[in-house]
C-alpha cells in the first residue's frame, strides 16, 4: 500500500488559519512561511517572527497546539513547526 503525503501548501494555509483564529496574543506576532521542508514522510513548516523583539521560542506551547490541530486535520503524524531565525523572516527583508 502506497502512503500519500498530504499537500504541504494546504498545511501552510491551514496553519495560518489556525493562528488567525487562536485567542493567544502571541499568534499575531508570528507568521508561517510559504516555504516548507519535505523530507521522506516528514513535513516541516517554518514559523518566523513578524516584528523586532518577537521570539518564536516564546510561543512553543502555541506552536505545539497548531501542530496537534494540523496532525488531526490531515491525519498525518509527521508534522513539525520549526522556528526560523529572525534574519530569514520576510520582515527582515525590508
Order of strands across the main sheet: 1-2-3
- What proportion strand? 15-25%
Instruction: Please describe the biggest sheet, giving its number of strands, its sense, and whether it closes into a barrel.
Output: 3 strands, mixed
Give the overall average pLDDT: 87
Which class do the helix and strand fractions yield? alpha+beta
| Low-pLDDT stretches | none
Annotation, overall tally of beta strands:
3
Query: N-to-C terminal Cα separation, in Å?
Result: 47 Å
Q: Given the structure, what is the number of helices?
A: 2
Helix and strand sequence? HEEHE
Helix-residue proportion: 25-40%
The coarse overall form would be globular
- The value of Rg in angstroms is 13 Å
Topology:
Layout: H1 8-21, E1 30-39, E2 42-49, H2 60-74, E3 79-83
Parallel strand pairs: 2-3
Antiparallel strand pairs: 1-2
Helix pairs in contact: 1-2
Amino acid at each position: 500500500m502506497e502512503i500519500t503525503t498530504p499537500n504541504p501548501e494546504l498545511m501552510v494555509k491551514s496553519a495560518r488559519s489556525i493562528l488567525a483564529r487562536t485567542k493567544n496574543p502571541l499568534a499575531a506576532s508570528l507568521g508561517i512561511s510559504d516555504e516548507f521542508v519535505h523530507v521522506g514522510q516528514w513535513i516541516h513548516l517554518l514559523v518566523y517572527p513578524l516584528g523586532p523583539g518577537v521570539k518564536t521560542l516564546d510561543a512553543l506551547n502555541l506552536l505545539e497546539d497548531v501542530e496537534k490541530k494540523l496532525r488531526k486535520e490531515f491525519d498525518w503524524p509527521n508534522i513539525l513547526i520549526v522556528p526560523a531565525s529572525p534574519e530569514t523572516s520576510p520582515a527582515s527583508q525590508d
